[in-house]
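Data deposition worksheet. Section B asks for the primary sequence of the deposited chain exactly as it was used as input, without tags or linkers unless they were present during the calculation. Section C holds the resulting structure in token form. Section D is free text for depositor observations; keep each observation to a single sentence. Incomplete worksheets are returned to the depositor.
Section A, Depositor: J.P.
Section B:
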Amino acid sequence: MFNKIIVFSFILANAILCQNAIIVENFDHRFNHKWEAISGYDEDYYMSWQIESGKLRQNNIINDPTGLLRYAYLPDFKCSEFLAEVDIMTTNAGANPRIGFVFGVKGMKFYRFRICQDSKTNQTCADLWCNGWFTPAGSSYKWTKIIDAWISKNIEPHQLYRLRLIVTAKKWQFFLDESLVLEVDTDRCYPVGPVDGAGRGIGAFYNMVLQDAYEGGAVGLYAVETDALFDNLYLKCLNSNSSNVVRVQRYGKQLLAQDLAQLVWRHAYQANIWDCSNMSSCLGNYLRSLGWHVLIAQGTLLGRSHAWVLVETQYERYTAVEATSISIKPDFPTPEQVWNLDDVMQKYPWEYGYYHIAPPHLVKRS
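Section C:
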């Protein structure tokens, strides 16, 4: 059980695992990063994660009576503290649709935050489970519920919702749209133990302190008993102790144009709040997550101070990109100053930061 691992994309050799690493997946015709998927069955047809009409679809078998776990994750994103956001939609009600995040993935040990809709009672809950810690001898059950809570909002089919998960050393927080639906303190002691498929305890319970048990690991998505659609996935590493990994650098002006062509800003330009400098650093971080080498340029354009992105499209040759319009500009002036992306964001956090603007900042062009 749970022994089918499918590697279904390898666009980049590795995701970037460095301080403030950011991964964006808009699922526009391809995957930007390496993904792996795990099914509860040996047969591939029971596991269907695929890009469809600009979204990632998890297509469950309608007559599947078992409702076993299906999840897909980014094996190279292994920050122990992170922010994760994704748009979700269910396309059929199902008996008990469940959808959310998995994280801390290390083989078959991981955690999952999820939203559950009970079609019989029409109630919605949020809960946190862990897998792989407490398995009694002779039992196949590995699930352990840590905490749950009933919430007032129902998850309706064909409606778009946004999930957010914030994992830090002291707290784990789970949001549905803008509402905090579940929060756990990692230094608290939780009584946990194995349960069966109906949630009944089937063995001895133990005291678990999350900050002692949690070791970090990969992050991904989860769905069961529903056909689920995911879009605009945003992952940001919040800690600086991740190992640096060699990445494959992208080159070529035509490839850069293709990467830019599918993007639009989710938020409109606002002078001194969300303007050329903020947009340049945000777009630069996104392009860097794809494998481009980027710099930030400052200069004078049409008599005014301006910032834009420089992208290395040939070895030591850079192409100017106007961030506000997400377009290549061959006629831009020579920069008066050029910055390393991390340096300019650290030196001028308000002018070049963008964390005061709600993610996702970039979305796919409709």
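Section D:
The mean pLDDT is 77.
Residues 296 and 309 are 5 Å apart (CA to CA).
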